[in-house]
Design brief:
The chain has 350 residues and is an alpha/beta fold. It has a single domain (2-348), classed as 3-Layer(aba) Sandwich (Rossmann fold). Helices cover 33% and strands 15% of the residues. The protein has helices at 2-10, 14-21, 133-148, 165-176, 198-209, 212-218, 251-256, 262-268, 286-303, 329-348, and strands spanning 35-36, 41-42, 46-53, 56-65, 80-84, 106-110, 158-163, 183-187, 271-276, 309-312. Strands 1, 2, 3, 4, 5, 6, 7, 8, 9 and 10 form a ten-stranded mixed β-sheet that branches. The model is unreliable at 1-20 (pLDDT under 50).
């Protein structure tokens, strides 16, 4: 009798067997220029990998959150939300409860560096080493995920969203690769890099040159001025060239500025969501400047007659219980609680 029970526990049948076996992260094969370092860390449905790539110096993390029922049906495939973190955060620190609320999609949080700015830097010969973040994410991470997990590997089943620096990255990636994404979302993102938002340009420059006191005041994650996450400092022109609007010297900033290229999203039929607070109207609060950038991006979409989803929750009083209208995780948790169910409905309609 005891032996029979033991056999039943060790060798369950069907979906129960898959669920019982899912006590560790799934095996992931190297490829697409990514080489894993060590073992995955975490549970079967919430874990991160450490990888190296010639495209970006150092070791990078990729956090993956699988639906709770991922192992129950080996034939089911899932849409994917790529979630881009802010500066100077790391995928491992992206612990928003909302990212684990969906049983309808896979969440992937790739490393964007403390100040990678989701771009291939103009200058690859700085003390920071290789900084080809676009190549890393769009040419390596996405096909790596599609090859190793049961994804629906199609534009209609893929979205990209991000907070702060990651909000810029989300719109920028959708604009340069509209074939990859069906929806893009900015949560307090730096989505106006034009001279109309010179303060945001200066924040980018501060992160590059390691002006730690300045950038820590506007950081989206923990930032200790005495232990700078922005070292080594590099030239102010390293990522996007000269930020100064003299004789068209800042043309590359304009080329990557999301607010100036909303037509690319409209032409590709990509859904757009923009979330912002107003920092209580205080110019010393970073969200005050983010609200201005969001307003400029909204005006650009209005001029094109675009359909979009836009929320300015002001001081956060009516935006859940966690948000004070500032540039912080409490508001982004509420943003995600609003965004994720809408994405689920969009993906279900495909």
């Amino acid at each position: 009798m005891l032996a029979a029970v033991a056999v039943a526990v060790i060798a369950p049948a069907g979906p129960a067997r898959a669920a019982a076996a899912a006590t560790a992260p799934p095996p992931m094969a190297d490829g697409f220029g990514l080489t894993q370092v060590g073992e995955a860390t975490g549970s079967a449905t919430d874990f991160y990998l450490t990888v190296t790539t010639p495209e970006v110096a150092g070791e990078q993390h990729i956090k993956i959150i699988l639906p709770s029922g991922y192992y129950d049906d080996p034939d089911r495939r899932y849409p994917v939300l790529y979630f881009l973190h802010g500066s100077p955060d790391d995928p491992v620190q992206q612990n928003y409860p909302a990212l684990s609320m969906s049983d309808q999609m896979i969440m992937v949080v790739p490393d964007g560096g403390a100040r990678g700015w989701y771009t291939n830097w103009l200058n690859q010969n700085t003390a920071a080493g290789a900084q080809n973040w676009e190549n890393f994410h769009l040419q390596q991470v996405i096909p790596f995920i599609d090859a190793n997990l049961r994804t629906l590997a199609a534009k209609q089943a893929r979205a990209v969203a991000g907070v702060s620096m990651g909000g810029f990255g989300a719109l920028h990636y959708a604009q340069i690769r509209p074939d990859l994404f069906s929806h893009t979302a900015s949560l307090s993102g730096d989505i106006d890099m034009s001279v109309n938002s010179m303060g945001l340009r200066l924040a980018v420059v501060a992160s590059l040159i390691d002006a730690t006191g300045v950038i820590c005041a506007a950081a989206s994650g923990a930032c200790d001025p005495d232990e700078s996450p922005y070292q080594p400092g590099v030239d102010s022109d390293a990522a996007f060239g000269s930020p100064y609007p003299v004789f068209n010297a800042d043309r590359r900033w304009n080329e990557v500025d999301p607010s100036q290229h909303m037509d690319r999203l409209a032409d590709a039929g990509i859904g757009v969501s923009v979330y912002t607070g107003d920092g209580g109207g205080s110019p010393v609060e970073p969200e005050f400047w983010i609200a201005g950038a969001a307003k400029n991006a909204k005006a650009a979409m209005d001029a094109l007659g675009m359909t979009y989803y836009y929320v300015n929750y002001g001081d956060g009083a009516g935006w859940g219980t966690r948000c004070d209208g500032g540039h912080n995780g409490g508001c982004w948790e509420e943003d995600l609680r609003d965004l994720i169910p809408r994405l689920e409905r969009e993906f279900a309609a495909v």
